[in-house]
Input
Amino acid sequence: MSISRRVFVIGTGALGLSACTGAGVLGPRVGSTPSSATPSGLPPDLRPTPNAGYDQWVAAFRGRAAAQGISDTTLTAAFRGTGYLPGVVTRDRNQVEFSRTLEDYLAIAASDERVSKGRAAFARHRGTLMRLEAEYGVDAEIIAAIWGLESFYGERRGDVPVISATSTLAYDGRRGAFFEKQLIAALKILQSGDIPASRMTGSWAGAMGHTQFIPTSYLAFAVDFTGDGRRDIWSDDPTDALASTAAYLQRNGWTRGVRWGGEVGNAAPQGTVIQPQPGGPRFSTTSNFRVIKRYNNSDSYAIGVGHLADRIAGGGPLRGNFPPDEFGLTKDDRIALQRRLTARGFDTGGADGVIGPKSRDAISAYQRSIGAAATGDPSPELLRSLG
Output
Protein backbone atom coordinates (compact mmCIF):
# COMPACT_ATOMS: atom_id res chain seq x y z
CA MET A 1 0.00 0.00 0.00
CA SER A 2 1.29 3.46 -0.84
CA ILE A 3 -0.78 6.18 0.78
CA SER A 4 0.64 9.64 1.19
CA ARG A 5 0.08 11.00 4.69
CA ARG A 6 0.36 14.59 3.51
CA VAL A 7 -1.73 16.26 0.86
CA PHE A 8 -1.41 19.66 2.46
CA VAL A 9 1.23 21.49 4.43
CA ILE A 10 1.15 20.19 7.98
CA GLY A 11 3.40 18.59 10.49
CA THR A 12 6.95 19.55 11.13
CA GLY A 13 5.07 21.82 13.48
CA ALA A 14 7.69 21.19 16.10
CA LEU A 15 10.22 22.61 13.65
CA GLY A 16 8.37 25.88 13.31
CA LEU A 17 8.68 25.39 9.54
CA SER A 18 5.19 24.57 8.36
CA ALA A 19 3.04 24.09 11.42
CA CYS A 20 -0.72 23.58 11.48
CA THR A 21 -3.46 23.15 14.16
CA GLY A 22 -7.23 22.23 14.05
CA ALA A 23 -10.75 22.02 15.98
CA GLY A 24 -14.69 20.64 16.16
CA VAL A 25 -18.67 21.80 16.03
CA LEU A 26 -22.53 21.27 16.59
CA GLY A 27 -24.98 20.04 19.10
CA PRO A 28 -28.57 21.17 19.30
CA ARG A 29 -27.18 24.69 18.58
CA VAL A 30 -24.21 24.86 16.24
CA GLY A 31 -20.96 25.89 17.92
CA SER A 32 -21.36 29.50 18.97
CA THR A 33 -20.22 29.05 22.56
CA PRO A 34 -17.09 27.35 23.87
CA SER A 35 -17.48 24.20 25.96
CA SER A 36 -15.42 21.27 27.13
CA ALA A 37 -14.78 20.57 23.44
CA THR A 38 -12.64 23.71 23.31
CA PRO A 39 -9.39 23.48 25.31
CA SER A 40 -8.54 26.47 27.42
CA GLY A 41 -5.51 28.53 26.50
CA LEU A 42 -6.20 28.77 22.78
CA PRO A 43 -5.85 32.21 21.19
CA PRO A 44 -9.15 34.02 20.53
CA ASP A 45 -9.10 33.31 16.79
CA LEU A 46 -8.92 29.56 17.45
CA ARG A 47 -12.03 29.57 19.62
CA PRO A 48 -15.57 29.10 18.20
CA THR A 49 -17.04 32.24 16.64
CA PRO A 50 -20.67 32.70 15.51
CA ASN A 51 -21.01 32.20 11.76
CA ALA A 52 -24.45 31.66 10.21
CA GLY A 53 -23.04 30.33 6.94
CA TYR A 54 -21.01 27.74 8.78
CA ASP A 55 -24.04 26.70 10.83
CA GLN A 56 -26.00 26.14 7.63
CA TRP A 57 -23.14 24.16 6.14
CA VAL A 58 -23.00 21.88 9.18
CA ALA A 59 -26.76 21.32 9.06
CA ALA A 60 -26.48 20.20 5.43
CA PHE A 61 -23.39 18.13 6.18
CA ARG A 62 -25.28 15.98 8.67
CA GLY A 63 -27.14 14.29 5.82
CA ARG A 64 -23.92 13.58 3.91
CA ALA A 65 -22.32 12.18 7.06
CA ALA A 66 -25.33 9.96 7.78
CA ALA A 67 -25.10 8.57 4.24
CA GLN A 68 -21.55 7.44 5.08
CA GLY A 69 -22.59 5.60 8.20
CA ILE A 70 -22.14 8.27 10.85
CA SER A 71 -24.87 7.95 13.47
CA ASP A 72 -26.93 10.86 14.74
CA THR A 73 -25.61 10.12 18.23
CA THR A 74 -22.01 10.46 17.03
CA LEU A 75 -22.76 13.65 15.12
CA THR A 76 -24.48 15.31 18.05
CA ALA A 77 -21.72 14.37 20.49
CA ALA A 78 -18.96 15.32 18.07
CA PHE A 79 -20.30 18.79 17.28
CA ARG A 80 -21.45 19.74 20.78
CA GLY A 81 -19.73 22.97 21.78
CA THR A 82 -17.67 23.23 18.62
CA GLY A 83 -17.83 25.94 15.96
CA TYR A 84 -16.27 28.03 13.25
CA LEU A 85 -12.61 28.90 13.93
CA PRO A 86 -11.56 32.03 12.00
CA GLY A 87 -7.91 31.51 12.86
CA VAL A 88 -7.87 28.20 11.02
CA VAL A 89 -8.95 29.89 7.79
CA THR A 90 -6.44 32.70 8.30
CA ARG A 91 -3.60 30.24 8.81
CA ASP A 92 -4.65 28.16 5.82
CA ARG A 93 -4.81 31.16 3.48
CA ASN A 94 -1.62 32.73 4.77
CA GLN A 95 0.66 29.73 4.40
CA VAL A 96 3.66 31.29 2.74
CA GLU A 97 5.47 29.19 0.18
CA PHE A 98 9.17 29.74 0.71
CA SER A 99 12.41 27.94 0.08
CA ARG A 100 14.51 27.10 3.10
CA THR A 101 18.00 25.79 2.51
CA LEU A 102 18.89 22.32 3.72
CA GLU A 103 21.46 23.93 6.02
CA ASP A 104 18.77 26.02 7.71
CA TYR A 105 16.38 23.08 7.86
CA LEU A 106 18.94 20.82 9.53
CA ALA A 107 19.95 23.57 11.95
CA ILE A 108 16.42 23.26 13.35
CA ALA A 109 15.63 19.59 12.66
CA ALA A 110 18.86 18.32 14.21
CA SER A 111 19.58 21.15 16.65
CA ASP A 112 21.58 20.38 19.77
CA GLU A 113 18.38 20.63 21.81
CA ARG A 114 16.45 18.24 19.56
CA VAL A 115 19.32 15.77 19.60
CA SER A 116 19.74 15.86 23.38
CA LYS A 117 16.00 15.56 23.98
CA GLY A 118 15.88 12.76 21.45
CA ARG A 119 18.56 10.77 23.20
CA ALA A 120 16.77 11.24 26.51
CA ALA A 121 13.40 10.26 25.02
CA PHE A 122 14.96 7.22 23.38
CA ALA A 123 16.46 6.13 26.68
CA ARG A 124 13.08 6.50 28.45
CA HIS A 125 11.23 4.52 25.79
CA ARG A 126 13.97 2.18 24.65
CA GLY A 127 11.98 -0.94 25.49
CA THR A 128 8.97 0.16 23.46
CA LEU A 129 11.05 1.38 20.53
CA MET A 130 13.04 -1.84 20.35
CA ARG A 131 9.85 -3.91 20.45
CA LEU A 132 8.51 -1.84 17.57
CA GLU A 133 11.70 -2.40 15.61
CA ALA A 134 11.39 -6.14 16.15
CA GLU A 135 7.70 -6.15 15.22
CA TYR A 136 7.74 -3.87 12.18
CA GLY A 137 11.37 -3.91 11.05
CA VAL A 138 11.67 -0.11 11.19
CA ASP A 139 14.79 1.24 12.90
CA ALA A 140 13.95 2.39 16.42
CA GLU A 141 15.94 5.60 15.92
CA ILE A 142 13.97 6.45 12.77
CA ILE A 143 10.70 6.15 14.70
CA ALA A 144 12.11 8.37 17.44
CA ALA A 145 13.35 10.93 14.91
CA ILE A 146 9.93 11.25 13.28
CA TRP A 147 8.47 11.73 16.75
CA GLY A 148 11.04 14.46 17.37
CA LEU A 149 10.35 16.31 14.15
CA GLU A 150 6.57 16.03 14.33
CA SER A 151 5.89 17.01 17.94
CA PHE A 152 9.21 17.59 19.68
CA TYR A 153 8.86 14.20 21.37
CA GLY A 154 5.27 14.82 22.39
CA GLU A 155 5.74 18.32 23.78
CA ARG A 156 3.86 20.04 20.92
CA ARG A 157 0.97 17.81 19.89
CA GLY A 158 -1.53 20.60 19.22
CA ASP A 159 -4.64 21.44 21.24
CA VAL A 160 -7.13 22.61 18.61
CA PRO A 161 -10.32 20.47 18.47
CA VAL A 162 -10.09 18.41 15.27
CA ILE A 163 -13.82 18.45 14.48
CA SER A 164 -13.90 22.25 14.53
CA ALA A 165 -10.71 22.54 12.48
CA THR A 166 -11.67 20.13 9.73
CA SER A 167 -15.28 21.33 9.53
CA THR A 168 -14.15 24.96 9.34
CA LEU A 169 -11.79 24.16 6.48
CA ALA A 170 -14.39 22.01 4.74
CA TYR A 171 -16.89 24.88 4.96
CA ASP A 172 -14.32 27.44 3.82
CA GLY A 173 -14.11 25.59 0.53
CA ARG A 174 -10.55 26.25 -0.66
CA ARG A 175 -9.82 22.56 -0.13
CA GLY A 176 -13.33 21.66 0.87
CA ALA A 177 -13.52 18.12 -0.55
CA PHE A 178 -10.25 17.12 1.08
CA PHE A 179 -11.20 18.46 4.50
CA GLU A 180 -14.71 17.04 4.37
CA LYS A 181 -13.04 13.67 3.82
CA GLN A 182 -10.87 14.32 6.89
CA LEU A 183 -13.95 15.36 8.88
CA ILE A 184 -15.80 12.16 7.96
CA ALA A 185 -12.71 10.14 8.95
CA ALA A 186 -12.52 11.98 12.28
CA LEU A 187 -16.18 11.17 12.97
CA LYS A 188 -15.53 7.51 12.18
CA ILE A 189 -12.70 7.55 14.71
CA LEU A 190 -15.07 8.96 17.34
CA GLN A 191 -17.73 6.43 16.43
CA SER A 192 -15.25 3.57 16.88
CA GLY A 193 -14.70 4.64 20.49
CA ASP A 194 -10.94 5.19 20.23
CA ILE A 195 -11.20 8.73 21.65
CA PRO A 196 -13.93 11.09 22.92
CA ALA A 197 -14.46 14.34 21.03
CA SER A 198 -13.16 16.38 23.97
CA ARG A 199 -9.75 14.71 23.65
CA MET A 200 -9.51 14.69 19.86
CA THR A 201 -7.19 17.64 19.45
CA GLY A 202 -4.34 18.41 17.12
CA SER A 203 -2.92 20.99 14.75
CA TRP A 204 -5.00 23.71 13.12
CA ALA A 205 -5.29 21.52 10.03
CA GLY A 206 -6.32 18.37 11.88
CA ALA A 207 -3.01 16.51 12.29
CA MET A 208 -3.17 14.54 15.52
CA GLY A 209 -1.07 13.02 18.25
CA HIS A 210 2.61 12.47 18.89
CA THR A 211 3.42 11.81 15.24
CA GLN A 212 0.76 14.03 13.63
CA PHE A 213 -1.55 11.66 11.75
CA ILE A 214 -4.35 13.17 9.69
CA PRO A 215 -7.68 11.34 10.24
CA THR A 216 -7.61 9.31 7.01
CA SER A 217 -4.09 8.07 7.78
CA TYR A 218 -5.22 7.18 11.28
CA LEU A 219 -8.00 4.99 9.87
CA ALA A 220 -5.55 3.30 7.51
CA PHE A 221 -2.59 2.76 9.82
CA ALA A 222 -3.25 3.41 13.52
CA VAL A 223 -2.31 0.55 15.85
CA ASP A 224 -3.42 -0.51 19.33
CA PHE A 225 0.01 -1.67 20.47
CA THR A 226 -0.80 -1.41 24.18
CA GLY A 227 -3.69 -3.85 23.82
CA ASP A 228 -6.20 -1.73 25.73
CA GLY A 229 -8.74 -1.80 22.90
CA ARG A 230 -8.10 1.77 21.74
CA ARG A 231 -5.66 3.22 19.20
CA ASP A 232 -4.77 6.17 21.40
CA ILE A 233 -2.24 8.39 19.64
CA TRP A 234 -3.22 11.36 21.87
CA SER A 235 -2.25 9.86 25.24
CA ASP A 236 0.76 11.06 27.20
CA ASP A 237 1.96 7.50 26.67
CA PRO A 238 3.33 7.63 23.09
CA THR A 239 3.26 3.86 22.53
CA ASP A 240 0.29 3.65 20.15
CA ALA A 241 1.45 6.72 18.21
CA LEU A 242 4.97 5.35 17.76
CA ALA A 243 3.59 1.96 16.77
CA SER A 244 1.27 3.62 14.26
CA THR A 245 4.24 5.39 12.68
CA ALA A 246 6.16 2.13 12.46
CA ALA A 247 3.14 0.46 10.87
CA TYR A 248 2.80 3.33 8.41
CA LEU A 249 6.40 2.99 7.27
CA GLN A 250 6.25 -0.80 7.12
CA ARG A 251 3.10 -0.81 5.00
CA ASN A 252 4.58 1.78 2.68
CA GLY A 253 7.49 -0.51 1.84
CA TRP A 254 10.14 -0.21 4.56
CA THR A 255 12.90 -2.80 4.13
CA ARG A 256 14.17 -4.33 7.37
CA GLY A 257 17.90 -3.94 7.92
CA VAL A 258 18.46 -1.27 5.24
CA ARG A 259 19.71 2.15 6.33
CA TRP A 260 18.05 5.33 5.09
CA GLY A 261 21.34 6.40 3.58
CA GLY A 262 23.90 8.86 4.86
CA GLU A 263 26.36 11.57 4.04
CA VAL A 264 28.71 10.67 1.22
CA GLY A 265 32.29 10.52 2.45
CA ASN A 266 35.48 9.42 0.79
CA ALA A 267 34.22 5.89 0.18
CA ALA A 268 32.43 5.08 -3.07
CA PRO A 269 28.74 5.92 -2.57
CA GLN A 270 26.02 3.26 -2.80
CA GLY A 271 22.42 3.85 -3.83
CA THR A 272 21.15 7.13 -5.27
CA VAL A 273 23.28 10.20 -4.53
CA ILE A 274 21.61 13.58 -4.09
CA GLN A 275 22.90 17.07 -3.30
CA PRO A 276 19.87 19.11 -2.19
CA GLN A 277 21.86 22.32 -1.68
CA PRO A 278 24.40 23.27 -4.37
CA GLY A 279 27.87 23.25 -2.91
CA GLY A 280 26.73 21.43 0.21
CA PRO A 281 27.11 17.84 1.43
CA ARG A 282 25.99 14.97 -0.78
CA PHE A 283 23.88 12.10 0.52
CA SER A 284 23.57 8.52 -0.56
CA THR A 285 19.94 7.40 -0.29
CA THR A 286 18.24 4.01 -0.31
CA SER A 287 14.72 2.74 -0.84
CA ASN A 288 13.98 3.48 2.82
CA PHE A 289 14.78 7.16 2.21
CA ARG A 290 11.93 7.13 -0.29
CA VAL A 291 9.66 5.46 2.27
CA ILE A 292 10.36 8.28 4.73
CA LYS A 293 9.23 10.67 1.98
CA ARG A 294 5.85 8.93 2.05
CA TYR A 295 5.50 10.52 5.49
CA ASN A 296 6.37 13.95 4.11
CA ASN A 297 7.32 14.29 0.45
CA SER A 298 10.43 16.37 0.93
CA ASP A 299 14.11 15.52 0.53
CA SER A 300 14.94 17.91 3.37
CA TYR A 301 12.43 16.22 5.67
CA ALA A 302 13.74 12.74 4.88
CA ILE A 303 17.35 13.83 5.37
CA GLY A 304 16.29 15.54 8.60
CA VAL A 305 14.71 12.33 9.88
CA GLY A 306 17.67 10.21 8.86
CA HIS A 307 20.31 12.57 10.22
CA LEU A 308 18.43 13.12 13.49
CA ALA A 309 18.09 9.34 13.83
CA ASP A 310 21.85 8.97 13.38
CA ARG A 311 22.49 11.70 15.97
CA ILE A 312 20.10 10.03 18.44
CA ALA A 313 22.07 6.83 17.94
CA GLY A 314 25.26 8.65 18.92
CA GLY A 315 26.52 9.90 15.58
CA GLY A 316 28.11 13.28 15.08
CA PRO A 317 27.28 16.33 12.98
CA LEU A 318 27.64 16.33 9.22
CA ARG A 319 31.26 16.42 8.08
CA GLY A 320 30.71 18.44 4.93
CA ASN A 321 30.38 22.21 4.84
CA PHE A 322 27.68 24.33 3.32
CA PRO A 323 28.61 27.31 1.13
CA PRO A 324 27.96 30.92 2.17
CA ASP A 325 24.34 31.99 1.79
CA GLU A 326 22.94 34.44 -0.75
CA PHE A 327 24.17 37.30 1.45
CA GLY A 328 27.73 35.97 1.58
CA LEU A 329 27.48 34.71 5.18
CA THR A 330 28.42 31.31 6.55
CA LYS A 331 26.47 29.69 9.36
CA ASP A 332 29.13 30.82 11.84
CA ASP A 333 28.74 34.36 10.52
CA ARG A 334 24.98 34.24 10.99
CA ILE A 335 25.32 32.94 14.52
CA ALA A 336 27.78 35.74 15.31
CA LEU A 337 25.35 38.27 13.84
CA GLN A 338 22.50 36.99 15.99
CA ARG A 339 24.61 37.03 19.12
CA ARG A 340 25.87 40.56 18.53
CA LEU A 341 22.39 41.87 17.77
CA THR A 342 21.01 40.29 20.93
CA ALA A 343 23.87 41.73 22.98
CA ARG A 344 22.92 45.16 21.65
CA GLY A 345 19.34 44.68 22.79
CA PHE A 346 17.87 43.52 19.47
CA ASP A 347 16.45 40.12 20.32
CA THR A 348 16.80 37.54 17.54
CA GLY A 349 15.10 34.76 19.50
CA GLY A 350 18.26 32.68 19.72
CA ALA A 351 21.50 32.13 17.85
CA ASP A 352 21.02 29.12 15.59
CA GLY A 353 22.30 30.61 12.34
CA VAL A 354 18.82 30.61 10.79
CA ILE A 355 17.77 34.11 9.71
CA GLY A 356 14.04 33.87 10.25
CA PRO A 357 11.37 36.54 10.83
CA LYS A 358 12.54 37.42 14.35
CA SER A 359 16.14 37.84 13.24
CA ARG A 360 15.01 40.00 10.32
CA ASP A 361 12.94 42.15 12.67
CA ALA A 362 16.00 42.58 14.89
CA ILE A 363 18.14 43.51 11.90
CA SER A 364 15.55 46.07 10.77
CA ALA A 365 15.39 47.59 14.24
CA TYR A 366 19.17 47.85 14.40
CA GLN A 367 19.34 49.37 10.94
CA ARG A 368 16.80 52.02 11.94
CA SER A 369 18.78 52.73 15.10
CA ILE A 370 21.86 53.65 13.03
CA GLY A 371 19.93 55.58 10.41
CA ALA A 372 20.23 52.94 7.70
CA ALA A 373 17.49 51.62 5.42
CA ALA A 374 15.53 48.96 7.32
CA THR A 375 15.80 46.12 4.79
CA GLY A 376 16.03 43.32 7.34
CA ASP A 377 18.72 41.72 5.20
CA PRO A 378 21.92 40.40 6.81
CA SER A 379 25.27 41.19 5.25
CA PRO A 380 28.98 41.01 6.00
CA GLU A 381 28.97 44.80 6.36
CA LEU A 382 26.18 44.61 8.92
CA LEU A 383 28.15 42.02 10.88
CA ARG A 384 31.26 44.20 10.84
CA SER A 385 29.28 47.23 12.01
CA LEU A 386 28.28 45.34 15.12
CA GLY A 387 31.92 44.99 16.15
Remarks:
- The longest helix spans residues 176-192.
